[in-house]
Amino acid sequence: MAVLTSSSQNLQVHRFPQDHYIDSLRWLPQLSAFHRHIILSAFDSESSTSSLQILNSSNSSSNPPELTFQSSLTTPSRITSLTTSQNPNKPLIAASTFSGSLLLYTADLVNGSLEFVDSVDEKGFHLGRVNGIDVSENGSEFVSVGEDGRINWVSFVGGGLSTRKVFDSNGLVSYGAVKWASPVEFVSGGLGFGLQWWDQRRPGGPVSQFKANWTRGTTSGIVHSIDIHPSRKHTCLAGGSSGTVFAWDLRWQQQPIMLSGVGTSDLPILSPSESDVWEVQYDNYTTSSNYRNVSESRVLPAMICSEDGILAVIEQGEEPVELLAEPCAINSFDIDRQNPSFGVGVHSHLDKVLTASSEAENFGYTAADFVVF
């Protein structure tokens, strides 16, 4: 485990070794100005047990920063993806698993504890690994996608879970990621480098599809992560195999806006990674280096983490900025979106990002430490 802090352009790294792997992590909503909470999924390879853990991060002047373990709950299966609602009073935490289930918990941020609420694991929900899950803005609806080619909608109303199958490809398509775009729309991505835009008001299939050949047919690939900017919901950001990151703009659907990728020889800049991009997020608080020419057609800066241990900021038409290079994979990261005054950025104030790092093992989910900066 490590903590990276910065003031102006000076970065400091503080490391805290861990004795278990970390598969994924997320910031929980802020309860006070002095304390933040982190939810992470851990895996103990010796006992083959999985757990969810809450850590407390104190906003103090201490050096190194203080991280305190608060609580842990064992999970019935290893976690593949985490998502959280933004209700600071009692946030919901949804976790998808390798066994095909969805687990729902609530977090008590005053006491730093977790409570199991419900699960969806009945036959037919997902067969095999659930690759992605996301929560809607209202915090009560979830969408999940799996390697079995199924897309499911889950609602948490009145203290119980209800489910509905949105789509089933019958194994012809495998999905790797999903992201809500609006209360009724979401985007999925998976094998074949494709993205699909779904609208629950128009059931039966995606309302728009994007198919691309990132690597000119030289390799196969999959979308691992999707993000949608809150103020530009017509533009979808995707990251996946071969260091590829691209944007799909619904207004110009035929061609991707390429940001990174080892198989794209037409890119004028070097890609920060040559391996799988496990996660991509818009860096909402980075000021564009080309801010004078920012327009609705320009893709805003994004942060990525990769299998070859790179954490970097990429921007359309600019050289990537490498923030961290680890000797192992970085599985996951999260930006603290409730502290814009700290401004996660390229040149200053890199204080509020979480990353989960790993040593390569099964499925790429074997993190031995995680990083906070």
From TrEMBL:
<keyword id="KW-0539">Nucleus</keyword>
<dbReference type="InterPro" id="IPR015943">
    <property type="entry name" value="WD40/YVTN_repeat-like_dom_sf"/>
</dbReference>
<dbReference type="GO" id="GO:0031080">
    <property type="term" value="C:nuclear pore outer ring"/>
</dbReference>
<keyword id="KW-0677">Repeat</keyword>
<protein>
    <recommendedName>
        <fullName>Nuclear pore complex protein NUP43</fullName>
    </recommendedName>
</protein>
<dbReference type="InterPro" id="IPR001680">
    <property type="entry name" value="WD40_rpt"/>
</dbReference>
<feature type="region of interest" description="Disordered">
    <location>
        <begin position="54"/>
        <end position="73"/>
    </location>
</feature>
<feature type="compositionally biased region" description="Low complexity">
    <location>
        <begin position="54"/>
        <end position="68"/>
    </location>
</feature>
<keyword id="KW-0853">WD repeat</keyword>
